[in-house]
Amino acid sequence: MNNNTGGDPLKKITLVGIDVSARKLDLALEPNRGKPLALAFDNTPVGHRKLVKRIKRAGHATRVCLEATGVYHLDLCLALHSAQGIEVMVVNPRAAKDFARAQLQRSKTDQVDARSLLEFLRRMDFAPWNPPSRSIRDLRALSRRIQSLVVSRAQEKNRRHADEVVSDCVHRSIVITQIGHRDHSGAEAAPIGRSVIVNT
Fold it and tell me: Shortest CA distance to 55 belongs to which of 73, 41, 75, 70?
């Protein structure tokens, strides 16, 4: 049995399911037990502010349900948690998937996932999310930065290797062209050929 109204059946409350991806946030918003609305916002600080403003428009207490999605959900959770009147529940992805399967959900779209999380919020006991400490958030940010630098370094090494391979192929092609030119004309390659070799 869920406890979304805190035991008070007359309490007005807005329920929101959010599907989180790297770039976008898809919402299924149910204002005070009304018909769910489909909304979307950018997964950016500006998008988070717009989302919070839209959620609070009804003026009711709000409960939000979303999946844990690595680094993509944390900033949104912090923005929601800091907003007055909004509580957040973060669901394990496996639990959300099992719930959707139990609801015989067959299609797979971002908005369908958002509606499934809204239904999860309706039916299941609410477990409020508490933000990690500042030191843990700083450590996570540092870890993400290190990983980003590792990826960038690998990409740069691959790019430089590709440039070296292309340069070597071009050089070989020019040398072969010069040899072929001398074989046919008995003379040295044209000055422009020597110029190309120097420039490479």
Answer: 41
Predicted TM-score of the model (pTM): 0.64
| Predicted pLDDT at 157 | 85
Residues, the chain, total?
Answer: 200
- What top-level class would CATH report for the domain 13-131? alpha beta
Token pair listed for 49: 């502010």
* Backbone phi and psi for residue 127, each to the nearest 5 degrees, phi listed first: -120, 100
pLDDT band at 13 (very low <50, low <70, confident <90, very high): confident
Q: Is the pLDDT of residue 54 over 50?
A: yes
**Residue boundaries of the structural domains of the chain:** 13-131, 138-199
Give the CA-trace dihedral at 66, 69, 71, 77, to 10 degrees: 10
Spell out where the chain has E strands: 13-20, 24-31, 37-42, 61-67, 86-91
Amino acid at 82: S
Exposed / middle / buried, residue 88 (Cβ in 10 Å: 0-12, 13-18, 19+): buried
Maximum alpha-carbon separation in the chain: 100
> In 13-46, which positions are buried (b, 16+ CB within 10 angstroms) versus exposed (e)?
bbbbbbbbeeeebbbbbbbeeeebeebebebeee
